[in-house]
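Re: beginner question about structure tokens

> Can someone show what the tokenized structure looks like for a real chain? I only ever see the sequence side.

Sure, here's an example I had lying around. Input first:
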Amino acid sequence: MLKALEDCLRIDFNLEDVRIFPKEKIFSYQEYKKLPLDNKYILAIKGNIPYKKAHYFLETARELFNKLKQAEESIRKLHIFQEEVDIVIKSSELFFSEGNIENFFLFLKDKKIALIENGKIILNTGIDKFTIDTSIIKLRKIKEFSSPFKEGEIYGVEFGVYQLIVQDEKEKLDEFSKKIIKTRLLWLDKLFKERNEYLIDELTGLYTRKKFFYDLKRNYNKSAIFINLKQFWLINSIYGIELGDEFLRRFGQLLKKLAHSEDVYRIYGEKFAVVFDNPEEAIDFRELLLSKVSQGIKLYNEKLSIYFEIKPEVSTVIIFSLNELSVEEVMITFKGKYTGNRNHSILEIDILPKLKKEKEIIKLLEKAISEKKIISHYQKIQNLQDKDDFYFESLIRIDNGKDLLYPAQFLDISRMHGFYPKLSELLLEKVIQDSKKTGKKFSINIEVLDILRKDFLDFVKGLVQEHKIDTGNIIFELTENEDFVKVVEDKKDIFFKLRDMNICFAIDDFGKGYSNFNYLTILPISIVKIDGSLISKISTDNKALLIVENINSIAHGLGIKTVAEFVSNEQIYHLVKNIGIDYAQGFYISKPLPLSRII
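And the corresponding structure tokens:
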């Protein structure tokens, strides 16, 4: 076929003399020979060429022209495919960036849509209830269907927990859109399962802590009430874990019912949160909740065939304006530190001022530690039988540049934020330096968890070697708190290693809370300090007097010295002396003083 083209080129035939025109176009050039290319176009050739050559040329042109048309069709299909891909990408971006279901189906904007999740309609742009109900019945039998509707159709498809019904009155849904819908429902189902695995609490059916923070952006500046079931462990202990779980489930249902809202969360354990549009709604909800809780929650025990009525003690904190910081602050209040004896408080009114003060203390602690502005005052502990025998207890203070901070102002905060170990080390170093300077005996309060730190023994040895002091002049005072009770028997070897260094141990506040005489037999205790709350009452309370006498007698029987704390007047002074207590400490003896005033 290319022979005609070759012959034409040999006789100076120029390709510019060839034209292709639509048939309907008026063609006025007489010198052109017109040949039909197809049913739409004609081939025009300038000049007088033989018919046979013209025929060959026409066949060649038709072949080239058909190839061009095929290429054009391929390009058109490629453009269509690109547009379809763009629709898929755009719909995905809209859904995943905005989280808006309606945007997710933006490519069906001219059609009516109903999206059903677990039997609940979560999106309907105008389909009537009868059509939806009929479609759902069909989808229970088959997972996909198409039904004629006017000039268009009703299309329904189901995947996992989702069903989608599309209604179009003008045309049928094209196959590509159906593919998009199936793909999106697959993704939606995957998201639903992933989110519900972590975002729905299995026990109560409420949203989880993770969901709460997931929703926080949407709930910014709204109000919320945080609810804590106080001492819930008692319910588990008295009624059993199974009934305790049922109580939590019923309590969660009660919160959802009273709130008339989906924004009800189980934050963790026995702590819950409910979000409202404004503070007034949160306050009204609290009053309603307390009223209902006071009536009790009835539970049925199938094993015993009886009903229990439980009236839980509830504490609440209301946030007027939700944000990340306010939530973090209210979590701290769940520990009860800033609410005190108040069961119900408002973050912005009752708690934030205290938190602000705490932040100021934290800054002072950071500065005091970095600049070593730790000060020790000393209170005299006097032998009641020998005036020449006495020693001093070290009491920590912090210099803030204007005045002194006392332990009650910063010790709890230092423990909460991890400053206490460093404070303890700095104070111990200070005491050891003062002991070397004066040659006097000093006691210092040491937490049992400090002693159990891996590096504590080496730290003490290092200070002793550095300052070359008589370790017999150092007494560690231990308080019997919860930590002491938990670890002292299993970790008692560290106490004996310190005793081997000639360091003495005293039990502080004995007779208060956790006191156990057994510790006096298993630890190397040299001194028992009888709690001041007992000593202060011995002049007016015979029971307190009897307890003090017995503590003193048992301690002496074990070869342990005794100290009476809070000796505040002459009457108490003589009473503890007559009982036979060895030492006395209190304002009647001496107030805490700087080192310069005790030497």
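Each token stands for a local structural state, so reading them left to right follows the chain. The mean pLDDT is 84.
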